[in-house]
Structures
1.
Amino acid sequence: MKKRAFSKTVMHTFDTIKMKKDIFDKLRAYAESTFKCGLHSIHGFNHWQNVDDSARLICEDSQADLVVVRFFAFLHDAFRVNDGSDLDHDPRSADNLDKLPEELSILRPDQLNLLEYAIRHHTDGNTSEDPTIGACWDSDRLDLGRVGIIPIDRFMSTQAGKEIARLGSKLLYMEKKN
Ligand SMILES: [Fe+2]
């Protein structure tokens, strides 16, 4: 039987996925290295992973830039110094984008601008019509259940975010979609 060769497109896709996995492993490790609130913080590792999971789901159905939203997931709370209100953690996390390690300096200037805005204003309580900024904020807000706050659809920016909040579950949202 003739052996089927992978097309260049398929190989390119594999390469891209591998590259992204490497980058996001480094991103997670960097965020962990800067974080001061400990392993079990409500703003820490589990929260970032939940935000990243929501980000990938929301970005399936929108024009949002998934790479920017995934950077947001791991960096928006990475410079918190306590689990209280820490009102300065938004500007502190945004300002620290200037100090990203070389291996994570992969974003174009327009992507960096979106990320910087999304982080700097993520606790202002606004919604956004920009699909990338909206996806960042929705992904964060959909994890409010961990602090006893039920996510509400009117505080979401994206259609997917609204629908997940209405259903109360990412799993139900995925079941409904498929
Ligand atoms: Fe957060």
Note: The domain at 8-177 is CATH 1.10.3210.10 (Hypothetical protein af1432).
2.
Amino acid sequence: MTEEIVKSALSKVMYPGFTKDIVTFGFVKDIVINGNDVSFNVEITSSAPEVAQQITDEATEALKTAGASNVTVNVKAPQMPRESSSHGKNIAPQVKNFLMVSSGKGGVGKSTTSVNIAIALAAQGKKVGLLDADIYGPNIPRMMGVADVKPEVNGNKVLPIKAYGIEMMSMGSLMEEGQSLIWRGAMIMKAIEQFLRDILWSELDVLVIDMPPGTGDAQLTLAQSVPVTAGLTVTTPQSVSLDDSRRSLDMFKKLNIPIAGVIENMSGFIAPDTGVEYDIFGKGTSQPMADEFDTKIIAEIPIEPGIRTGGDEGKPVTFANPTSESAKRFAAAAESIWATIEEINANGGVDNQAVQPTTPPGVSACSTGGASAAPQSSGGGCGCS
Ligand SMILES: Nc1ncnc2c1ncn2[C@@H]1O[C@H](COP(=O)(O)OP(=O)(O)O)[C@@H](O)[C@H]1O
Ligand SMILES: [Mg+2]
């Protein structure tokens, strides 16, 4: 037997539910050949025993047909990457770090920020995924220029869509355009879990997660499902936005999520013809709030027509116009976020043990308005409002 023969035999074994084989997916690792005896590992994130069994059976048969005598197949979950030092429950262990992007209200530029920060991190050499967890308003596919792309779906497993050097998944990519959604708490929780468990994310340095606005079931479920490394809050400079952003920062505190900073978006307007900067909604007004939560403003992003057109046309400014002022500020914010993530990991990482549900499985602590998910906090408990 040679490695070539082994790989060629294994390339006939499809990953259950998919039209691609386990070699093409890159799941086959550590092939050891001893005469006609073959052993190897299959690293898959699926924990379903029937998936492991099917792969083992089919791989053994394929290799025996190719002339192998003894075949040993070890199906196992990928190692938790060592760069992450986080603990607790993690239903997407191939992802090293999770960045939760939140805002108090909609329309402040949360999705715009998520997209541009994700692309900036990728441009800085990180392996990045972008999860559009805004189930009610999934705008990321349009902003990423993949509104018409449907992912490879089979059963309930889905491959992320690739664009601008990152992997992306959104409810918008899974449903028909314009379809409206009415979600109840339990459905949101299930959707968030499936986004983490049933999407075949690669081994990622960081998954950027664009949350729905506010503080609710989606935020709590995310924090309970994976150890969220850091949280980012996007706000605009007006007081009415800042009031809501405080709630978002308070939620991070209650869920034990370290804060990576605040992005003040629509902070001034740079006239494209003259380059003169005008205050429209105000500017720098988020500073007292950042101080209050012991964090910092990591970018003031001006209103720039190119940000809006870039979003609408699916050409994010960070990619389409990297020398623009806003792209430079997004890049600096991405560097700051990464430095924070590294520091958090150097100090032992995060642990989501304290926010695990105290309500029965499938029942939302938020929906019931009852039990506290973060026993050490006072008030709302689960961080929902
Ligand atoms: N700094 C900015 N300059 C110009 N337009 C912006 C800026 N930030 C966001 N926008 C536009 O405002 C709208 C709302 O932004 P979006 O990111 O969808 O907000 P959210 O996700 O918070 O609802 C989008 O059309 C987006 O292109
Ligand atoms: Mg949005």
Note: The pocket of adenosine-5'-diphosphate (ligand 1) is lined by residues 103, 106-112, 139, 265-266, 301, 303-304, 307-308, 311 (CB under 6 Å).
